[in-house]
Specification:
About 65% of the residues lie in helices and about 0% in strands. The protein has about 210 residues and is mainly alpha-helical. The protein has one domain: Orthogonal Bundle (Farnesyl Diphosphate Synthase), CATH 1.10.600. α3 packs antiparallel against α4 and α3 crosses α9.
Length: about 210
């Protein structure tokens, strides 16, 4: 699917100037180890309202990088390396990587209608991590929040105002993947999924093209 490759390549390109090389390679490996559903959903939401311009990919990459940065932060918070006897150097590198990812993501969304929603995602994430620390319960709140951001970032690119985003985000994160709760990105191209995206964005979309 071209959209998946485009989001992945766009994310890698956005961190292309990160040095040293080993640090850059660590970031790319982390990106490749996750899911590109957030970025792809952004593209499809924009497509649903008839928007297909270069700035859509920037929005998709912005959403994707914010998600991956927070995902890395969550992993560090869940498994604090500083409580172990081993050298915490890698943890320090990971913290810096998370900061880079979130910062680059925010930069791409800063001048968009989704900027405030992006801030809300980070604030909600902080609250969720506090609850997680107190209760020990894991959840996919980050995943649901980031998919709502994806719908807003994509639809607003074409002047759309998405609604019922929470319901669609809940559906897409109600999966069997314990790591993220996301479905395979290819699922988003199914007719039923495209119809749900159209309904949430208020768009009618283009005819389904599985090469998107």
């Amino acid at each position: 699917m071209e959209a998946i490759a485009a989001v992945r390549d766009g994310a890698v390109s956005t961190v292309g100037d990160v040095v040293p090389e080993g640090f850059h390679d660590d970031i790319v490996a982390f990106l490749d180890g996750g899911s590109f559903v957030p970025g792809v959903l952004t593209v499809l939401a924009a497509d649903s309202v008839g928007r297909d311009t270069p700035d859509v990919l920037d929005r998709a990459v912005g959403v994707q990088l914010i998600y991956d940065g927070l995902r890395l932060t969550r992993r560090l918070a869940g498994e604090p390396p500083w409580t172990e006897s081993r050298e915490p150097t890698q943890a320090n590198v990971d913290i810096l990587a998370a900061d880079v990812l979130v910062a680059r993501g925010f930069y791409l969304l800063a001048e968009t209608e989704a900027a405030t929603d992006a801030v809300d995602v980070v604030q909600s994430f902080g609250h969720d991590q506090t609850v997680r620390h107190e209760t020990g319960e894991d959840s996919h709140e980050l995943e649901a929040d980031i998919l709502e951001l994806a719908l807003v970032a994509g639809a607003s690119a074409g002047g759309g105002v998405p609604f019922d985003t929470a319901a669609l985000a809940a559906e897409l994160t109600d999966g069997d993947d314990d790591a993220t709760g996301f479905p395979d990105p290819g699922v988003l191209f199914d007719t039923a999924a495209r119809e749900r995206i159209d309904a949430a964005t208020g768009g009618s979309g283009r005819p389904l093209n599985r090469n998107d």
